[in-house]
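INFO worker-7 received task bundle
INFO bundle size: 2
INFO processing item 0
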Amino acid sequence: MLDSGFDLVAEFPACLAVLKAYASELKHLSDSASSEPAAAVSQGDSGETEAESAELEAEASDGRRRRWLPRVPAVDGINAEDLSRAHGRLIAHGFLKCDLADCPAGIVYQLTPEGRQILARTIPADETAAA
């Protein structure tokens, strides 16, 4: 399946940009989650801090909340039509999953292990080409 992923991103580069956008959102979410407990402790209000800590621990233990993201609304350099097309192709090839269950805010998306592998194999090539 990875060969088809490389074919996909070669044929339709917007797909790689969308995968990168979701990876960036995940990283941002992870970074902000790891900084929140330290900020809560520094507030000094033990009642709030304990409640906030319990909530953060519950969120951290719920892997589903950490992996599912709202749809990326825009990616630099990609028009709305190509963004929709990229989402569809990534889902069809198994590099991105979507889910409607328990989502009052709308569809949520998740990078699949195959999508992460495509990123892992293409990002170093992009960074070395830019250097």
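INFO item 0 finished
INFO processing item 1
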Amino acid sequence: MNARAVLAAVLLLTTAIIMAAILLDLFSTGFRLGPFRFSHWTAWIGTIFIAVYAPLYHLLKRRYPQKLDLLMDIHTFGFLVAFLLISIHFASQMGRPAQAFPDLGEGITLYVTMLLLVATGVVQRFWRPEKRSHRRYTPRINRSFHISLITTFYIVIAVHAAINVS
């Protein structure tokens, strides 16, 4: 296993541990930082990174093909950190008491979309099938699904923001 795959695994494990700690009330993310709660800031930072870097990556990799390795590392690890930040928000929402529990509507859809984006991204980046027949088709199908999920992300985040900002 290469160092990048290990780092990705560490980031995913860290995300799971932090989410569990929030859900078990080992620490709170509900404190205010300026006008908003800390968990909202983390979600906005993660979401803005994804919303800006996804199309930027698409443009930059064509403009600067010699920097593809760097751009891919920023894409991979930047999105994993963004997923961690968004997961902090999601866990803090899920950890709210019953009387203040959020409406799960588009928020759960958004988080499932993020989980699928991460899963398909990790498969696309790190999975190398051993069977020759799998190598030809799996990446194409996975890549198409991964790219379509980012469109879903944009639509659902717009709806989520419109509903929850008002």
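INFO item 1 finished
INFO post-check item 1: The mean pLDDT is 88.
INFO post-check item 1: Residues 132-165 form the longest helix (34 residues).
INFO worker-7 idle
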